[in-house]
Amino acid sequence: MAMNSKLNIVISGVGGQGIVTLARIIGEAAVNNDVKVLIAETHGLSQRGGSVEVHVRLGNVYAPLVPKGGADILLSMELIESARNVDYLNKDGMVISSDTILRPPIPGVKLPKKEEIIKEFEKNNIKYYLIPTKELAEKIGSYQSENMILLGALYKFSQISKFINIDSIKESIKTMRNPEINIKAFELGNSL
Amino acid sequence: MNNLLNKAGSKVLLMGNEAIARGFIEAGGGFAAAYPGTPSTEIVETLAEVAPLLGIHVEWSVNEKVALESAYGASISNVRALAAMKHVGLNVAADALASISYTGVRAGLVVISAEDPSMWSSQNEQDNRYYGMLTYTPVLDPSDPQEAKDLTKTAFELSEKLSHPILMVPTTRVSHTRSNVILDKVTPPKAKGNFAKENSRFGLVPANSRNLRDKLINKWNIIKDSFEKFEPYNRIENEEKDKIAIISSGSSYQYVKEVNEEVGNYRLIKISTPYPLPRKFILKGLEDVEKILVVEELEPIVENQLKNIVNEEGLSIKIEGKSYVGYSGEMTLERARKAVREFLGLSIEQPLTKKLDIKLPERPPSFCPGCPHRATFYSLKRAVNSLMLKPIYSGDIGCYSLGINSPYDEQDIILEMGGSIGIANGLAHVSENQVPIAIIGDSTFYHAGIPGLINAIYNKSPILVLVLDNRTTGMTGEQPDPSSGLTAVGEETKVIDIAKVAEGVGVEKIIVFDPFNIKESTNMLKEALSYVVKEKKPAVAIAKKACALNAVRIANKIHIEIPIYQVLENKCTACGICYNAFACPAIFVKEDKKAWIEPSLCTGCGVCAETCPYDAIKPVKIIDKRWDSVWQ
């Protein structure tokens, strides 16, 4: 890791999707690599099915929050939440997102289509990777592991490997409740 | 994954609140009490997990006042004690705090008030550093999790040395930020001590208080001096730079530090003691400085003290602060950058942010699937409508505050903890034809609702007090409360029966209902409301059903299958009652407007089946006989 380098990740999704856990796994791995990490969570009402945002900063960083226009990566467990948070991306920032769309529980709510969101990513020159996390999680028989599949995809497609080595991520996943299946999920995401 | 008891020297990932808990353990603390509140909850929650191992006393107190009084009791018995709360909780505990500085303490007493700039989970963003000024209590403001841990330990030592309480005010971005923390060694806890009598000091009758007040003024000078050398928490960076300086307090320092590196590393004065601001240290920082920018969140606490010092010293230094930084909301890099660059006369480039040309639906928080509050709000509205009443829903602080949203619209007023009943009392005595309905949760009822209820009886206020008893403090993450039958450390204890409390204070009409039974709930609420209107007296209605998150957790633990419900296609008439009026997030609308239940979200409460007039919602399988028991 270069002395002055830093990596800004904004993780978004819906309360209950395992976003805080995902961020914590990155954080534990960073600590094991002796890399400075800051993970800022906004709790409170968010566990009741609302939008959740967690900021993860690695390297030469002090402030806990990523500024608008400052994220290298927008990592998202849900596609509408990806679209909602693109203003965090910097000029070259990329989206790594689950292709899942979850309907907010509002009577008569109108949902955007996946294709519309993709078209907008392209119109704005946003580099994106859409991961069929739900499908892949079903494939390995663990609905709870979508977040680890996304983490695998993050490791594969982003510069995070310059900050954290793969073994320490796996070590940190091993502290989770179902280590074998979650390692499998991570590897699946990392092999896409 | 609990790193809290790892050995000295290890580097671990800790959330600010966990770091504070570790600081308490490193200081050998023996007593911790709190009332849960975001962003403070995890301090005592984490300590409760390790309390049996350490042999210390950790409790959820019924409110912040009791938490602080309890901690004070431990401290004056020579046990280091901590009381934790969210910022507005300190309003409740302020009565105690204002006098504790008169008596002082014995073993270290540290009060943590976790601040919430931007109001991520609060009703206001008051700056509790003012409480330090009001009560002669020194205020410490950590800038990150490592410092939160270290300062907690230091605070205990200092509190004990000065025989004085210390107030620490971490913000959301310290309390709820995880970062690398290096641990120090744990001091074996001292959890027992005896109270040595000293009436002239601990008995605040006027004669004693007058004495103590004069002593306090003198002691304050010693306290102020003790912060003059407070490294590394207070320090001057880039001291060789002159003319221009920036001073920042608490977590703002981390933002300013990053911006300062971008603009050329000006002299930076870092403060962790916003009150009292150490004069000699500050004057050293101001040497050869012509202008200085104060970067702090919320109110100009450091700024005003700094202006005062500069004025008294007759210095000609230009001091800027709030005019560049602004008042509302938490610090961000954008905000710190704009303030610093404007102050330096540098141009400000707005980063080009991407924006999609697409309409996105909002995703507000909502009641969980299976939440008993949804059912209660549904029945309450039916009862009110069928009696053709004009209700005023006097709401309160808890998950049920979400009842302010459509389609429920049953929280007209939300002010503070326990306020629902007191406000309803005022509404009742001036209203000509409206019926005040105070809506309050179990934890909030114990916290500050009971005096309001006694007042309603005493002053003959015609109100309905509806207690939503889900047997836990739901909003902050299901901490046990006096309705749970469990203490913070998981020991069994007496359940404090709300109906009996109401009966004991003289309520003559009390109904207890199961909110999952819509018909019965509606009828009972009608009965209670009719009583209030006819008899012009208060009535209490108690909706009793466990929090859905707890019920599902218990079911999973004892291997009871959650009964999933489904919509019978041939019977559904697409009326929309289940998804529009009851509005469970597990129920979706299909293209033909018929309902569909998402099996992964359904928690098997079965209330939608009750709301369906066409009998079109049924469980998929036969329900386990033990199912009802998990909701008790």
From TrEMBL, chain A:
Keywords: Oxidoreductase
Gene3D superfamilies, per database record: Pyruvate-ferredoxin oxidoreductase, PFOR, domain III
One MF term in the entry's GO annotations: oxidoreductase activity, acting on the aldehyde or oxo group of donors
UniProt superkingdom: Archaea
Keyword Glycoprotein attributed: no
Pfam families named among the record's database cross-references: POR
Residue ranges of domain Pyruvate/ketoisovalerate oxidoreductase catalytic in the record: 15-189
Coiled coil regions, renumbered to chain: none
InterPro entries reported for this sequence: IorB_Oxidoreductase, Pyrv/ketoisovalerate_OxRed_cat, Pyrv_flavodox_OxRed_cen
Name of the protein in question: 2-oxoacid:ferredoxin oxidoreductase, gamma subunit
TrEMBL record, chain B:
Enzyme class: oxidoreductase
Annotated binding of [4Fe-4S] cluster 2, by residue: C584, C602, C605, C608
Entry keyword annotation includes Oxidoreductase: yes
Binding site for [4Fe-4S] cluster 1: C572, C575, C578, C612
SUPFAM superfamilies referenced in this protein's UniProt entry, alphabetically: 4Fe-4S ferredoxins, Thiamin diphosphate-binding fold (THDP-binding), TK C-terminal domain-like
Annotated ranges, domain 4Fe-4S ferredoxin-type: 563-592, 593-622
Entry EC no(s): 1.2.7.8
Any one Pfam family match given in the protein's UniProt record, by short name: Fer4
Needed co-factor(s): [4Fe-4S] cluster
GO molecular function: 2-oxobutyrate synthase activity; 4 iron, 4 sulfur cluster binding; indolepyruvate ferredoxin oxidoreductase activity; metal ion binding; pyruvate synthase activity; thiamine pyrophosphate binding
Cofactor annotation remark: Binds 2 [4Fe-4S] clusters. In this family the first cluster has a non-standard and varying [4Fe-4S] binding motif CX(2)CX(2)CX(4-5)CP.
Alphabetical keyword list: 4Fe-4S, Electron transport, Iron, Iron-sulfur, Metal-binding, Oxidoreductase, Pyruvate, Transport
Catalytic reaction annotation: indole-3-pyruvate + 2 oxidized [2Fe-2S]-[ferredoxin] + CoA = (indol-3-yl)acetyl-CoA + 2 reduced [2Fe-2S]-[ferredoxin] + CO2 + H(+); a 2-oxocarboxylate + 2 oxidized [2Fe-2S]-[ferredoxin] + CoA = an acyl-CoA + 2 reduced [2Fe-2S]-[ferredoxin] + CO2 + H(+)
Family annotation (NCBIfam families): IOR_alpha (TIGR03336)
Function: Catalyzes the ferredoxin-dependent oxidative decarboxylation of arylpyruvates.
Known partners and oligomeric status: Heterodimer composed of an alpha and a beta subunit.
Protein name (Swiss-Prot/TrEMBL): Indolepyruvate oxidoreductase subunit IorA
Lineage: Archaea, Thermoproteota, Thermoprotei, Acidilobales, Caldisphaeraceae
